[in-house]
Amino acid sequence: MDIEGKVGVITGAASGIGRAAAIELQKQKIKVLALVDLSDAVLELAYEINKLRGKTVAIGFQGDTTDPEFRKRVFETMRTQHGPVNICVPAAGITRDALAVRLNKEKGTANIYPIENFRQVVEVNLIAPTYWAMEMVAQLAESRFSKGLKKWDIMVGTQGVVIFIGSVSSQGNKGQIAYASTKVGLEGAASTLTKEAIFYGIRCAVLHPGFTDTPMVRALGEDYINNEILPATQIKRLIRPEEIADAISFLIRNSAVSGQLWADAGWHPMPN
After folding, report:
1. pLDDT tens-place string over residues 143-168
2. 202 backbone dihedrals φ, ψ, rounded to 5°
3. Over the stretch 115-129, which tens digit does the pLDDT of each residue have?
4. Phi, psi of 86 (to 5 degrees)
5. pLDDT at residue 6 greater than cutoff 80
6. Cα Rg for the chain, rounded, in angstroms?
7. What CA–CA distance (Å, rounded) separates 171 from 99?
8. pLDDT score, position 122
9. Does residue 268 register a pLDDT over 80?
10. CA 256 to CA 234: how far, in whole Å?
11. d(Cα 24, Cα 18) in Å, to the nearest integer?
12. How many Å apart are CA 165 and CA 152, to the nearest integer?
């Protein structure tokens, strides 16, 4: 699907992969793009993009992606002002890393991962992205119904694309019981939504980035990055956000690609 002239939504757009994706899509001449984030930095990014393009192509929305009313407001604003959303990249995510079970070697007692942390990660990383995607599907379904259109015809081309942001951690990663579980969950959400949403001409895919140079990864610390991550990659460096954004653009533009795409820099964790 051509990006030029389309209407898009990106969550987690203030930094990291979401920010890089926003910059890449504006380079591809997207018509208008909703930039969503909890941080007010998303408003500054919208300003920068609009200044670069010389017109309003980016609209910043500051809010919580887990809030259903906020989500509906973003989509309704885009629909009434610019038309139905065609591209959805729900990239917002968090980590709350800790061992699933930690043994206190002095007391001989074991503590398990806090359930409140697990619920928070699931809410942000799995439930919210899935519902942002479904919101777009619902909007396009309503738009087609209002025009008297029924089942999508392949001859008219792809009508919409959802790109979920997975992770190499979906294969399992020490200390990421909650985060890894949500990324596996996105695979199931995408597979199911693909089977349903294609009725309206909407494709869904999951992009699994490797360790990317984002604030989330940098928070792991230089020692962990240098000793645990880089030696297990083929390129011996963190992936640049721009490289992941390029992969997102590819997934949107190439209608033959669905399912999952791995942009992992050949990451293979070393045995402990």
Report:
1. 999 999 888 888 777 899 999 999 99
2. -110, 130
3. 999 999 999 999 999
4. -105, -25
5. yes
6. 19
7. 16
8. 98
9. no
10. 27
11. 10
12. 26
In one letter, which amino acid is 142? E
Please give the single-letter amino acid code of residue 223.
D
Q: Confidence class of residue 24 from pLDDT cuts 50, 70 and 90?
A: very high
Architecture of the domain made up of 7-263: 3-Layer(aba) Sandwich (3.40)
Residue 239: strand pairing partners = 212
Separation of alpha carbons 47 and 65, rounded Å: 21
CB 191 within 8 A of CB 200: no
Q: Is the pTM of this model over 0.85?
A: yes
Beta strands at 32-37 and 7-11: parallel, antiparallel or unpaired? parallel
Q: Which tokens go with 45?
A: 């990014």
Q: Using H for helix, E for strand and C for coil, what is the string for the chain? A: CCCCCCEEEEECCCCHHHHHHHHHHHHCCCCEEEEEECCCHHHHHHHHHHHHHCCCCEEEEECCCCCHHHHHHHHHHHHHHHCCCCEEEECCCCCCCECCEEEECCCCEEEECCHHHHHHHHHHHHHHHHHHHHHHHHHHHHHHHHCCCCCCCHHHCCCEEEEEECCHHHHCCCCEHHHHHHHHHHHHHHHHHHHHHHHHCEEEEEEEECCECCHHHHCCCHHHHHHHHHHHCCCCCCECHHHHHHHHHHHHHCCCCCEEEEECCCCCCCCC
Q: What is the pLDDT of residues 64-92, one digit of tens each?
A: 999 999 999 999 999 999 999 999 999 99
What is the C-alpha to C-alpha distance for residues 198 and 201, in angstroms, rounded to an integer? 5
Identify the bridge partners of residue 98 per DSSP, sorted by sequence position: 176
Nearest to 125 by CA among 150, 97, 99: 97
Q: Which residue has the tokens 């979906």?
A: 170
